[in-house]
Amino acid sequence: MAYFGCHLSNSKGNFAMVQTALSIGADTFAFFTRNPRGSKAKPEDAGDNAKAVAALKEYGFGPLVAHGAYTMNLCTADPEARAFAAAVLEDDLRRMAGLPGNFYNFHPGSHVGQGTEQGIEFIAEALKSALRQSVRCLHPRPGPHGCRGGNCRTVPAPPPCDADHPPE
Ligand SMILES: [Zn+2]
Asked: Least enclosed by CB within 10 Å: which of 17, 94, 100, 156?
């Protein structure tokens, strides 16, 4: 099944994007999670997310595509810039937990002369770290420390997977 949509602004929130998409006959859309040429993001709004999620389901939307900021360079040689990019990635994935089941698209950056191997290593490190943070919220567990979604910090992170197996 094909879904059609366009890139929309999230300046008025996630539910407003769904309404705009509906008004033009779209059943998916893309959006920037934050200022794509900076890093500033709107404050999160759980009520807005809930309305958006309900409308996406009600109207049978396909998966959305969130786009990370262009300012992220996860594999630069500059440790401060790399830390900034990793923090933005982690924040984006945490935010996406409020719109579950959708895609996140980002430009991993440029190794800027360090070589492909080093660049990929830095990108993989950042992804592993960000996923360790967000997996806690994406896989709720029952019990006294069960995560019910949102910004849960009480469930221990799963061990990192360094196994040599094909993607699941
Ligand atoms: Zn892009």
From this structure: 156
Rounded to the nearest whole angstrom, what is the distance from the C-alpha of residue 67 to the centroid of ligand 1?
7
SS3 for 22?
helix
Q: What is the pLDDT of residues 64-122, one digit of tens each?
A: 999 999 999 999 999 999 999 999 999 999 999 999 999 999 999 999 999 999 999 99
Q: Is the pTM of this model over 0.85?
A: no
| Three-class SS of 62-128 | CCCEEECCCCCCCCCCCHHHHHHHHHHHHHHHHHHCCCCCCEEECCCCCCCCCCHHHHHHHHHHHHH
Domains of the chain in sequence order: 5-154 (3.20.20.150)
